[in-house]
Amino acid sequence: MTTKTWSLFWGSNFVRAPLQNGVGRYVQQLQRITFKFCKTHGGSKGMREYIEKELIGFARENPGVVVYVKPRRHRSPCLKAEYLNGGEDYISTHVNTCEDIVKWVEYLRGRSGYPIERLRKYHHTDYPSIQGPWTPWTHRHPSINFKEYPCVSCHLIIVMVDDKLL
Amino acid sequence: MSTCQAVMSGWNYDAELYAFGKRLQEEFDGDALREALTDASYITKEMQRQQELGVSDPGLAMSNNKELAAKGETLITQYCFGYLRAALPLLPEEGISALVDYLLSEDVMSAVGYGIGLRDLILCEEHPPSSSTMARCFHAVVGALSVSSPALQCQAFVRDFVVAQLVGKDIDAIWKVENPMGVLADILHQSGQGEPEPRLIFQSGQETLQAVYHVGVYSDKKFMGSGYGETVETAVKEAAHDVLRKLFQITDSANPLPFGKDADVLPLKTEASVSLDNWSIDKTKNIISC
Fold first, then answer.
1. Where in this chain does the entry annotate a coiled-coil region (chain A) (predicted)?
2. SS3 A154
3. What is the pLDDT of residue B54?
């Protein structure tokens, strides 16, 4: 897929943080996560193993995330994550192993909740220039600094300097 | 009993409330938080529903968040005033009030409430909660925090979630000075300096669509600031704005607002800053901005 096609469908954006997150304090954006699985089906084996081994530890380490476990008979397992900014994410974990699910949960835990987009730049500033915007007179020849004003031939010199620069 | 979004979708309200406090790294008093999240419209609706079902005496021992909201709003106002006066010592009182009004506006308050996840937790009649309900509820959450935690922690909460909304905003755009040249003339007069004198520094492309003028403002032949515009009038206005920005130290290159450790040691100022009518360069000379 070319960049153009990608941008057409998925858009692009700058690096951003919801609600100035991290300026004052960091707030984990993952609000709740639901583990859906089947108690008997083979496709949910990894998920059942995760729930037995890892889930309590995850919940203990992340008290800000509400964890729900939802058994559903004979349906494939998945993860549903909801974020503070209203974003949602769904990951199918059919026939995934416990280790895979650990990684997927880690992926969901660290996200901001914004959709995955192409980043135009890996940095962002609200003040692109503290010197002000460019104007036609921004980078003038330094010789002007030494002129004695008022001067008769000044206008002529400035025009000449401009010609040289432009 | 609860019919907020969290419960309607089958969530556990107690667990959600616990996680809410933990997520914000705050210790909330459970009852106070519940009260803060209960809107008056919810209690009315619930009473009505129970009476329709034939319950003669609905045992709804709930109180709405009006009191806590009033308390929270006072707290936010007080802290924002104290913080901004200390952080922007040269900004006149009018500017400080404009910034506080902006922070306390319904838009900002409801955006903060939405951003910390109140949307699913509020008990109210409509869903999603309207922005006024959301703003009131956020005030009430701050009120509930003041009940449950020491004052310093409550202030840190207000700073991290409310004042932080000013980061990246142009103060000059929030507080608009209508007549910058007149204001500048007053200030210079108060300071015993000469009248501001706008002078054309450069011009280009006159009588074309892309005309641009560069105007500098001088007082007693001293350069004070400059601005650009597509006409001379706008350029003069911009230049006067530029001088005011420099005097009030709210330029783009000014120091950022203090947060974290810097803000912890910032002494809050209770007395009002100098108002615009009395603002002079001499008066603010001894103020050290850190």
1. none
2. helix
3. 85
Rg, C-alpha atoms of chain B: 25
Give CA–CA dist B141/B33, Å, rounded.
Answer: 7
ipTM, 2 dp: 0.86
Is residue A133 a part of any domain in this protein?
A: no
The CATH architecture to which B5-173 belongs is Orthogonal Bundle (1.10)
- Interface residues of B toward A, Cβ cutoff 8 Å, are 11-12, 15-16, 18-19, 22-25, 111-112, 114-117, 119-120, 156, 159-161, 163-165, 167-168, 201-202, 204, 212, 214, 228, 251-253, 259-260
CATH class, range B177-248: alpha beta
> ω before A150 within 30° of 0 (cis)?
yes
For A32, the domain range is 3-119
Token digits for A124? 């962002």
Per-residue pLDDT reduced to its tens digit, B78-136: 999 999 999 999 999 999 999 999 999 999 999 999 999 999 999 988 888 999 999 99
Q: Say if the Cβ atoms of B19 and A31 lie within 8 Å.
A: yes
Domain count of chain A? 2
∠ Cα B160 B73 B83 (to 5°) = 45
Q: For chain A, what is the radius of gyration of the CA atoms?
A: 28
Residue A98 domain-assigned?
Answer: yes
Give the residue from chain A lying closest to B163, CA to CA.
A24
User: In 3D, which of B33, B81, B164, B111 has the Cα closest to residue A25?
Assistant: B164
Provide the whole-model pTM: 0.89
- C-alpha span between A63 and A59 (Å, rounded): 6
| Closest alpha carbon to B94 in B166, B24, B162, B171 | B171
Q: How far B15 CA sits from the closest chain A CA (Å)?
A: 7
Q: What is the pLDDT of residues B192-220, one digit of tens each?
A: 999 999 999 989 998 899 999 999 999 99
**A109 and A166, same domain (yes or no):** no
- Tell me the per-residue pLDDT of A97-134, one tens digit each, with 9 for 90 and over: 999 999 999 999 999 999 888 888 898 887 777 777 78
Residue appearing with tokens 């005030």: B139
Helix (H) or strand (E) holding B145: helix B131-148
Residue A74 lies in a domain: yes
Mutation for testing the B interface, residue in A66, A80, A88, A162 having most B CBs under 10 Å: A66
Do A23 and A88 sit in the same domain of this protein? Answer: yes
Are A155 and A111 part of one and the same domain? no
Domain limits, chain B? 5-173, 177-248
Q: Which two tokens stand for residue A30?
A: 């993952």
